[in-house]
Write a structure and sequence with these properties.
The chain is α+β, with helices and mostly antiparallel strands and about 325 residues long. It folds into two domains: about 1-175 and about 315-320, no CATH class; about 185-295, Cyclophilin-like (Cyclophilin, Beta Barrel), CATH 2.40.100.10. About 15% of the residues lie in helices and about 25% in strands. The strands form five sheets. It has a seven-stranded mixed beta barrel with strand order 12-19-16-17-14-13-20. The protein has a five-stranded antiparallel beta sheet with strand order 2-3-10-5-8, covered by helices on one side. Strands 9-4-1-11 form a four-stranded antiparallel beta sheet, with no helix packed on it. The longest helix has 24 residues, at about 295-320. The relative contact order is 0.18.
């Protein structure tokens, strides 16, 4: 069991989200970096969509009340156990002893980190998910970010033989790795692309966009040369999805993330491929983003390949002997 000494920034309980609740007007919620969530869980033998902690830009400080094993994935938050000088890197598991402290700092790359516990974080299931729904104020820990004194309970606290594991590949344990330059997001043409002037889609693809500080779990707001407006009134509201690229009146694109509204009225010029959702979830203010257009068939192949890579990593871990 862990107790929160310092909550960090926007530390919440998240799983894969409420996939079936959009018809009720409930945002999906869930982990912004689904690959990191899955990796942290797979390292512990959990289901890939089990509930874990997600934190943003600055991680929490946690007291270890009872021995437990944790896994980290996502951005590197310089995690450490001060009592024994241990450094905990993303893509690894660690046995934490009672009386010690798990401390996170600021993110060195990316925006979000994940901490999984054996069996997942034990909180109630609401509308099919344990995720925190900030807008509705439910799920997770009373529908809010963690605060000092909150306790994190693993669903299987007595399983302690999973320490010392490392992500076996293929691929990284998160969609973000330290690198220089723009992040590339693959897009398919959106339902309103033809309503924009002919040069709008070309400008979207040619521009080096910058993530603005107004971005959050609802959407990534981009700054750059505004896109030319479409003619005519705004279309009727339609269902939105994670990765939708909307263009409001000002011409600055917004890429929707997991807490987006279920419907929207802005025109949709493009939709990001699902395989790039981990990249979207790790973007932070000041990052540079470029778009690359692909066809739907390629987007589907990329999603299939990413899912197969996760299954391969899971198989490799299951074949390996756990280290004490």
């Amino acid at each position: 069991m862990l107790e929160v000494l310092g909550p960090g920034m926007h530390t919440t309980v998240q799983d894969a989200g409420r996939l079936e609740a959009s018809s009720l007007g409930v945002p999906r919620s869930g982990a912004c970096d689904p690959l990191a969530l899955a990796a942290a869980n797979i390292l512990l033998g959990n289901a890939p969509d089990a509930a874990a902690l997600e934190f943003e830009l600055m991680g929490p400080e946690l007291a270890v009340l009872e021995p437990c094993v944790v896994a980290l994935a996502g951005a590197d938050f310089q995690a450490k156990v001060p009592e024994d000088g241990r450094r905990l890197r993303p893509g690894t598991t660690h046995l934490l002893r009672a009386g010690s402290t798990l401390s996170f700092g600021a993110a060195r790359d990316g925006a979000r980190g994940y901490l999984a516990v054996v069996g997942g974080v034990d909180v109630p299931v609401i509308l099919g998910s344990r995720s925190t729904a900030r807008i509705g104020g439910f799920g997770g820990c009373e529908g809010r970010p963690l605060q000092e004194g909150d306790r994190i309970r693993p669903a299987h606290p007595d399983v302690l033989g999973l320490g010392g594991r490392s992500w076996p590949g293929p691929g990284p344990s998160s969609g973000i790795v330290a690198h220089v330059g723009a992040r590339t997001v693959h897009i398919v043409e959106g339902p309103h692309a033809a309503e924009f002037p002919p040069d709008a889609l070309a400008l979207l693809l040619e521009t080096a966009w910058t993530v603005t500080p107004r971005s959050d779990r609802m959407g990534v707001r981009l700054g750059g040369l505004p896109l030319p407006p479409a003619e005519g009134p705004e279309p009727a509201s339609l269902g939105m999805t994670w990765g939708t690229v909307q263009v409001p009146a000002g011409g600055a694109p917004i890429i929707l993330l997991v807490d987006h509204g279920t419907v929207g009225g802005y025109r949709v010029i493009a939709v990001a491929a699902s395989v790039d959702r981990p990249i979207l979830g790790q973007l932070r203010a000041g990052d540079e983003v470029r778009f690359a257009r692909i066809e739907m068939a390629r987007a589907r192949r990329m999603a299939v390949d990413a899912a197969e890579a996760l299954r391969t990593a899971d198989s490799r871990l299951r074949m390996a002997e756990p280290m004490a």
